[in-house]
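Changelog entry: the Flagellar biosynthetic protein FliQ record was regenerated in this release. Current contents:
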Amino acid sequence: MSPEMFVDIFRDALFVVLTMVAAIILPSLGIGLVVAVFQAATSINEQTLSFLPRLIVTLLTLMFLANWLVRVLMDFTINMIKEIPMVIG
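Regenerated structure tokens:
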């Protein structure tokens, strides 16, 4: 296996991981920002007020994007299996 092939595989894997994590984290980050602005405007310092909406949005995001996330991971895995002969030979 050449170093270029290893770098290509690593780059593809890193892209898949970053894409999947960003799809889950970005909605939670947006809700966290909205709640933080609301807390700053109203001077409410309740910890559960910032945690619970982020948890709910993260779970809803996982629920709605589960099909897409599994499809992306399966496509990556299938491509890795197809590239085994090129990596070995």
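Residues 7-13+21-82 form one domain.
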